[in-house]
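Case study 2.
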Amino acid sequence: MILKVINHPYEFDMKNICTAFFPYEKIKSDGEEDISVITKIDGGTLSVSVQVFDKKLNKTHTLKDDEDTALAMSVLLYDTLSEILGFRSAWGVLYGVRPAKLMHRFSQEYGEEGARRYFTEKFLVSPEKADLTATVAEHENRIISLSRENSFSLYVSIPFCPTRCAYCSFVSHSVERTKRLVEPYVDLLCTELERIGKIARDLNLRLETIYFGGGTPTTLSAPQLKKIFTAVRDNFDLSNLREYTVEAGRPDTVDRDKLLTLRDFDITRISINPQTFNDSVLEAIGRKHTCAQTLEAFALARDCGFDNINMDLIAGLPTDTLKSFENSVDTAVKLGADSVTVHTLALKTAAYLVTRETAFDMTDRITASKMVDYSRQTLTKHDYIPYYMYKQSKSVANLENVGWCQDGKPCLYNVFMMDETHSVFAAGAGAVTRLKDSKSGKIQRIYNYKYPYEYIDNFDNIISRKEGIYDFYSEYK
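Prediction:
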């Protein structure tokens, strides 16, 4: 699609509004395309002209005194696109990853009710989404208050999976295709953990949470997991640790030996992620396991003593239906999952030819919206608390991802990470260490190489980069 910005500096805002309506489209500034948007300011008059194939619509708005020009232009574009497509996003013109953080800031400025009104009246957010955001902000703030000035969390990346899911955008690789890399990767990861642990001790930092993600950490064998867990135990002070999470996301990687290894190292929280309880949908997205395997893995984890198990579900998966998704939510609730994280499918940029029929077909967005609404209603009814939320660009219908938990079972790491509460030291391929100064709010990032083979080939450089942690704490602490 073409987006033209004339006589104003709000291109970033315009792109985000366009992406909410056309998540598949690559946005260009010139050329000839079937979809075009022109936004313009002429004196005190804002104008938007939209063409989607053979449909055209123009709208104007005269600025009022003291009106926020960027917001007014966003609302005008949103209204124009909504009218021409016949679909209004429940999030209105609000974009950005952390709506709860924004709600918290507005609550401090305008009070809780004033913040809600700002969301609904200014940003055009639906009352349901505004209430959800306010509730999430309340629970996030309780978790954030646990962090201290010298707190940090640890993230460990295991970028291997049994197979790669069709929707995946993470750094993960089929273990069968990269099998030769696993052993050297594990060895170097332990060395990196040893170095990070020394830095944390030298700086007298307090470890609050540990999170093993990927990929699927339980793709590794029990002895390989034991080796990494031992490196963590031997190099970090775990006496103040509040939470230790390991994703066992693919049920086909879960067995008793691995679960007992996790128990031996006092892992307190795991994820067993069905994504859906529909076998045909699992096949469509490249998950080489069945719903029965998910049920078996969950039961086995309970039998091994795990009392904090998360399950991920995804709204908007290819071939999934509203009825099927409702069954997935109901199944997770009946199992007694301690937390259920409901994601909305985020669309990967790929070759996708938008036709006139698909441009105006809102079926997938309407269905995904109903799925997310059902999850909210059902999980609320069963006393799950929305403790964590974030939004992704290119998600279906511009919808959100929400972590729901039973009382006392939130994932602290998720909140610390999303809020940017404190430093997160990260190890492994694709891992990003984020340093945070609690007083100034200054944030600095140190990147590891993205892919396992790069991580292995450039390991000395990765270790050298970690010295930057000392420099950061010396300057800001």
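The two ends are 47 Å apart (CA to CA).
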